Amino acid sequence: MRRKTVSLLLAAAMMTSFAAAPVFAEEIETEEATQEEAEHVYTNAADGMTLAIVTKAAGNPYNEKEAEGFTEVVEGEGGTVVVQHPESATADAQIAVINSLISQGVDAIAVAANDTNALSAVLQEAMDEGIKILTLDSDVAPEDRATFCNQAGVQEVGQSLIDAVYDLTGGEGQYAILSATSQATNQNAWIEAMKAISEEDEKYASLDLVEVAYGDDEYQKSTDQTEALLQKYPDLKVICAPTTVGIAAAAKVLQDQKSEVVLTGLGLPSEMAEYIGDDEEHSCPYMFLWNPIDLGRLAAYTAIALVNETITGAIDDEFEAGDMESSPYTLTAVGDSEEFSEIILGPPFKFDPENIEEWKEVY
Amino acid sequence: MNKKENGIFRKITGSREASLLIVLIILLALIELLQPSFLAPQNIAQIFRNNALTMLMALGMLCVMLTAGIDISITSVLAFSGMTIGLLQKYDVIHNTLLLFLIGAAIGAVCGMLNGLIISKGKVAPIICTMGFMYIWRGMAYVISNNAWASAEDVSGFSDFGKSGAPGPYIILAIAYVIFFIVMKWTRFGRRIYAVGSNAEAARISGINVDKTITLVYTIMGLLAGITGVLSVSIYGSAQPNMQYGKEMDVIAACVIGGVAMSGGRGTVVGTFMGALIIAVIAKALPLVGLDSLWQNLVKGIIILVVVILNVVTQRVMDRRALARREM
Question: Which residue of B43, B145, B153 is in closest CB contact with A273?
């Protein structure tokens, strides 16, 4: 009797939790590939081209924005767009999608890779068929693509962050960095760039970096570290947190305590909307992250240039990217490589009280 | 041996709680020396608030470990519960704080009961069963959230409950510790848990329903993990599928430091409290005392080991003395 009651209860509980799940899941929009022939007669850069973009997964608003920028440029240039969102954020799902694009005979595929190595075979196959391959957002092994549209150039991020610190401190005083883990490759590179820039340029000579603290991208530890920074350095003016969890945790601490210390760094707009503002009620005047629409647009211009053979993917190739701010773009070397190239999108995008309302819906 | 010295030694080692207290006092004195404002009221408030999650779950882990079990699915349950109530707010379904806590608690209790049933009826080793659920509930948190967060803005209003300076987390902690202290010390249920842990066969023969006790213990653990998930969202103002990832180790460490035996049957609420407090003090102090960040984890590990070894030694002395008394 009792066993029966328990199992009934369990079954009921499981059913409610599963029934509730679809309510939360965002409705997945599968964008139909627009297969119609371009009707434009004027000579556009992408006339007669069919260009495809493969995102990481369906239902990811960040990826949707990348596809949006891509679509806008390609259609504007008279080409045909195929947008493919794989069912899940796995390499397998992307392989299936890319295979079908190969048989459709598209001219170029831009991929936001879910795995560095797993796509190698299918991308090589595509290149053998004469399809131009480029990556955006996250790269594959460089021999499997012509070039990579990189949203986060180390120098650009470092420059934007140190300039923000300069601006928020008023040009002089103490600031601290709250990073992710001490092993985080990206964060370490950005912090090194910040340090290098402030050492080279006299302009930043009055800025005093008191500590680089590590919150390990955990709320609890980041909170401890932020509180410790406030306590240890009473004259601290700015905390710069180039990591999404760190900046959100620090923002909460500063805002709850109504601290004089202000915050900047790299953060997710949706997560930081509560904390971004110019007044004393908010802890973060502005912060940065990438602009996925621009990244999508850059990928589209790159794809067109590859198909037109304006560029081949070699280092030092140059191409025009319409009305984009940093156009014309030059392909630069990946690290110390002499063979493989990437394209840096430009400085990170600034999120401030003016645009945060719009962007918090995006990602 | 000097008789007086022996007396003090006996007193210190006579109770594990007392020896823990001394460890805590030494630790605090050391930290206070390096960072004189450490014991300021604001700091102490921050210690409790920022470690409320570990402290709350340590109570459940105490019960689980008393039955010689372990539960490593707790932070996954926490994430599932926290993510659910985060999403309920994100999509404007429910904004009532009490209701959200009840939902989180219910989710946690169901998750915990599943653990308990599989472990007691299915005779699956606790670490295996809870390892499975560790992946399942963490996975569920990712699935229902679609890998997105419930942001600070989504949970604003609700997060006032756990805001810095708000009494919410302290009240929950105080109530939980008082209830557990009473239950473990003075109720039949509490004694049953100890009995099952020290000798399950003897407990069965003496008429205790061992399966039921074990199921209940894991249900309680789940319930606490569920509540902690909700509390986490209110304290940190955000729900993410990966929240508190890996933190079950802090909870287990708190219990072990507090003298709870992995082999079951031994451990108290007061000891657990002190163990959790020591973990909390270490977490708070390490970034404050000017220790290089790269060294902090290393030092944390060393402190935990020293305290545990101290405890084992104390326990051995106690056992020997108890044995000696029996032989007399």
Answer: B153
Residue A212 sits in a domain whose CATH number is 3.40.50.2300
CA angle in degrees (0–180, nearest 5) for B54-B120-B115: 40
A233 touching B (Cβ < 8 Å) = no
Does one domain contain both A188 and A134? no
Write the pLDDT tens digit of every residue in A299-352. Answer: 999 999 999 999 998 989 999 888 888 888 999 888 778 889 999 998 899 999
Indicate the helix (H) or strand (E) that contains A208: strand A207-214
A132-148 pLDDT per residue, tens:
999 998 888 999 999 99
Residue A40 lies in a domain: no
In angstroms, the CA A148 to CA B25 distance is 57
Query: Which residue type, as a one-letter code, is found at position B66?
Result: L
Task: Tell me the shortest Cα–Cα distance from A25 to chain B, in angstroms.
Answer: 6
- What does the pLDDT average to over B35-63? 92
Least confident span in A57-61, A73-77, A335-339: A57-61
Does the pLDDT value for residue A27 go beyond 50? no
Task: Say whether both A280 and A306 belong to one domain.
Answer: no
Domain span including residue A171: 154-289
Q: Both A174 and A279 in a single domain?
A: yes
| Residue B31, SS3 per DSSP | helix
Q: Does one domain contain both A108 and A130?
A: yes
How many Å apart are CA A361 and CA A332, to the nearest integer? 33
Strands A147-150 and A132-136: parallel
What is the pTM (predicted TM-score) of this model?
A: 0.76
Task: Considering only the beta carbons, identify the residue of A213, A229, A274 that sits closest to B151.
Answer: A274
Distance, C-alpha A312 to centroid of its chain: 25
Cis peptide before A328 (omega within 30 of 0): yes
Say whether both A158 and A264 belong to one domain: yes
Residues A131 and A177 in one domain: no
Whether residue A242 lies inside any domain: the answer is: yes
Domain count within chain A: 2
Q: What is the DSSP string of B189-247?
A: HHHHHHHHHH-HHHHHHTT--HHHHHHHHHHHHHHHHHHHHHHHHHHHT-B-TTTTTTT
CB-CB under 8 Å, A21 with B110 = no
Question: Residue B287: which H helix or E strand, with range?
Answer: helix B269-288
| Nearest of B286, B85, B229, B60 to residue A219 by alpha carbon | B229
> Terminal CA-to-CA distance of chain B, rounded, Å?
20
C-alpha dihedral sign at A285, A290, A292, A294: positive
Q: What is the pLDDT of residues A157-203, one digit of tens each?
A: 999 999 999 999 999 999 999 998 877 777 888 999 999 999 999 89
In a domain, A250, yes or no: yes
- For residues A298 and A324, the answer to whether their CB atoms sit within 8 Å is yes
CA B33 from centroid of its chain's CA atoms: 29
Pairing of the two strands A287-289 and A349-351: antiparallel
Same domain flag for A302 and A191: no
Q: Does residue A353 fall inside a structural domain?
A: no
Q: Say if the Cβ atoms of A17 and B151 lie within 8 Å.
A: no
Same domain, A174 and A263: yes
ipTM of the complex: 0.81
Q: How far is the alpha carbon of A168 from chain B, nearest alpha carbon, in Å?
A: 23
Task: Render the burial of A161-196: b for 16+ CB within 10 Å, e for the rest.
Answer: bbbbbbebbeeebbbbbbbbbbebeebbbbbebbbe
Contact list in A for residue B153 (CB cut-off 8 A) is 270, 273-274, 360
